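SAMPLE LOG
Freezer: B-3
Tube label: C17
Construct: single chain, 200 aa
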Amino acid sequence: MRLTRGALLVAATALTPALLLTAPAFAADTAPSSTSVATASETDGSGTPVDEMSEEELRIAILRILADEDSGRGVVREANEALDGTVEDMRAFLKTGYRLAQAEDDRVAIARILADPDSGRGVIREANEALDTNTPEALRAFLETGYRLAQAEDDRVAIARILADPDSSDALRAAAAEVIDGTPEELRHFLEVGRYEVDG
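STRUCTURE (predicted):
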């Protein structure tokens, strides 16, 4: 079984570009979204319902998940267990196991964010709220959008402190005032790079 799985994994990896064109559920560059997890539970990405997929189609669908470099330990573990099991085990993984394993990996990712000493109040608040809600959808939503928005909230607070700091130079204050209403990416770039370029 391991040799067969290895051969199939190599084939699935080699065919990934073609597979991604026909299977958007597995084409995300980031960790699978709640939409892709839901799609995986219903079809193989080409419209075939999981309950109607052949054993080979089930294996290929799971191997696509394994080939995704963003698949976490929980997903990899459950996917491999499904491949070692019966056809019904593979169906169960695609219908519900994948979603639950992804939620397990998402909890770990959120715990790492909470353990980061640089996480601000907004991030901590939203991360804890996602963990308290404790649904796969809430965990995924935090990682996909909530984290970015909470980080932007914390970044605005940090930039406001720069504006209020009497030791900030006029140039730094001007740059901070210009960016404070910017996008999350602009706020982060200013704090990580831009502020040092102004005073550099």
